């Protein structure tokens, strides 16, 4: 079997990645405001998935906001770190291309800097899958770097990796989400903070009812 380079890369950097980003959201109040708005719309009525959860820093924030949140990720290394750091939370291995939930099961989905690893031609199928998994009216929250570039990173946090990711245009994502059956709710584009290289976007949409 050919190893998935995204999974292998995140396995290698998992521990250092968790440390590097542990407190990153502390000085990003508008990012946290979007997560809080998402939590308020999702409510406490059902399970919420943090897809591409990595070390679980957003999963725990969603839990602290009162949600029944669990994390899901491609990388066993990331999941091991998440489970060790947050033993009270559930973390599952999987892919956002095929979620292990029945139609309409989820009260909300967050994909925080994880759709960046989906190839553009695969995004419509992934958005269709997220739509399938959500209950009518349930919110979807996406975070990503703003731009047009497809990038390949060969070194991260002192490790050799092979990570392909996309910078994305919020207008394009809005069009794709609308085509998948979502109603756009809010789009945040904020300026760079700390180590950000470009503007950052957070997009909030809801599954149509
Ligand atoms: C940039 S990290 C973000 C992690 C976390 N959301 C955070 O903000 O700390 C991207 C994560 O997405 C995961 N990922 C990439 N493609 C995925 C897929 N198709 N399904 C699930 N997770 C995926 C990676 O393993 C990695 O943990």
TrEMBL record:
Keyword tags: Methyltransferase, Transferase
Q: What residues does the Methyltransferase domain cover? A: 48-137
GO MF terms, alphabetically ordered: methyltransferase activity
For biological process, the GO terms are: methylation
Q: Which SUPFAM superfamilies match?
A: S-adenosyl-L-methionine-dependent methyltransferases
* InterPro entries xrefs: Methyltransf_25 (IPR041698), SAM-dependent_MTases_sf (IPR029063)
Task: Tell me the protein's name.
Answer: Methyltransferase
Classification from the root reads: Bacteria, Bacillati, Actinomycetota, Actinomycetes, Micromonosporales
